[in-house]
Amino acid sequence: MKSFLLFIFSLFILNSFAQPDKQQLERELFNLPNVSFSNATKPGDAFLTYDLFVKQPIDHQHPEKGYFNQWVQLKHRGFNNPTVMETHGYGMGRGQNEVEQILNANNIGVEYRYFGKSIPDSMQWEYLTIEQAVADLHAVNQLFKQLYKGKWFSTGISKGGQTTLYYKYFYPEDIDVAIPYVAPIDNELEDKRIYTFLDTIGTPECRQKIHNFQEFLLKNEDKALEKLSWYAKGARLKFNYTGNIGKSFELAVLEYSFSFWQWGRSCDSIPTNKKLDDYLNELIKTSDISFFSDRDIAQFASHYYQATQTGYYGYNIEPFRKYIKHFTTNPSAIFPPKAAKANAFSPELYRNFKNWLDEKGNNILYIYGGIDTWSAPRVLVTNRVNSKSFLIPGAHHGTARIKTMPEEMKQEFIGKIKEWSGLNAKTEVLK
After folding, report:
1. What is the pLDDT along the chain (431 residues), one digit of tens a residue?
2. How far, rounded to the nearest angstrom, does the alpha carbon of residue 163 sit from its chain's CA centroid?
3. How far is CA 42 from CA 11, 95, 110, 181, 187, in A?
4. Distance of CA 222 to the CA centre of its chain
């Protein structure tokens, strides 16, 4: 009984910190133009949570072309607290990010246009561009700067981190400090730095095991497809987009080395016993053939469409050419919606963006993983800007985080936050 009362008292204390702002916050939200909201606060939260829908133009240059509702989630800790814009690269993420935690900051999470709940009634693909997406962020920023007058940060992971960087490029005055995680900046549709990375990362022994694994599967493609056809049938997978299950199988095998390092798989997990079932189980765990099915390709259609503007990667078939049946040139890892008019990579956007990062990209703290494949196209900070990159040894795409930094690196990281914002970051709150 005493424990239960203590639990109830703790909930009361936690809620009491947030509740005094509730009426004022709801009045402020009510007065924001083109915004609807609902309370999504959970019992025990030490902050107020609101789901909002912001009316956004499909084309910010021509609002008369129509609008869509963009999902924004606000976690309010206090009007005098700093504010973090979490720039999601896909659908809305859940949970607290590290930056809001170490700063005890308000969080404004913005779902990317054409994902999740932020999809227009008509998929006009030509308006899914970097320029339109960061204009969405700017509109949200200008709305909430009416409420929050303290320091502003932006952060995002992977494509969300890439979005953080493009946002700072197009609207440098919106944000005081940007903290992108594992953010690739590709230099063409087939960024060949990926191949160099895969040829040099890890030990020669591990790289050879990966090569032998891929080669074995390709040499035994016919037998592998017999088994995978049953797997595909059970999972109700279809392969009309790629053309057939054989093409998707070869793509999955070629993808294996990329995904292996991206997600920090262990070299000990790679089979060497020549038992096909063991090889296929490892393939499915690391680079599932379902990723190249109609279902998964359709799920990421918006991502693929935009990748044609910002650049991406492909698969080097040269080491396996004599075993490849379905490709004569390096296939792309981009699978844009066939119903959309083809987008085009923009060398001019890349050059201008890269020059800005090199010459004017100040107050940016980059976080990358030492073994993450996406670190191949990472931003290399020049000595002409006041920014810093942190490459965390042994970290992959899912573990390159502030909490996994070595202590000396962590102290340098929070020292930069203090220098640029005047705020004390508390990394001890991270778990």
Report:
1. 444 444 444 444 444 445 668 999 999 999 999 999 999 999 988 899 999 999 999 999 999 999 999 999 999 999 999 999 999 999 998 788 999 999 999 999 999 999 999 999 988 999 999 999 999 999 999 999 999 999 999 999 999 999 999 999 999 999 999 999 999 999 999 999 999 999 999 999 999 999 999 999 999 999 999 999 999 999 999 999 999 999 999 999 999 999 999 999 999 999 999 999 999 999 999 999 999 999 999 999 999 999 999 999 999 999 999 999 999 999 999 999 998 987 889 899 999 999 999 999 999 999 999 999 999 999 999 999 999 999 999 999 999 999 999 999 999 999 999 999 999 999 999 98
2. 8
3. 11, 12, 20, 28, 43
4. 36
Q: What is the CATH number of domain 2-184+347-429?
A: 3.40.50.1820
Structure tokens at 166: 């493009």
Cα 22 from chain centre: 32
Identify whether the C-beta of residue 58 lies closer than 8 Å to the C-beta of residue 68: yes
Going from N- to C-terminal start, the domains of the chain cover 2-184+347-429, 193-323
Give the contacts of 317 (CB within 8 A, at least 6 positions apart).
Answer: 254, 324, 327, 329, 330, 331
Separation CA 5–CA 242 (nearest Å): 60
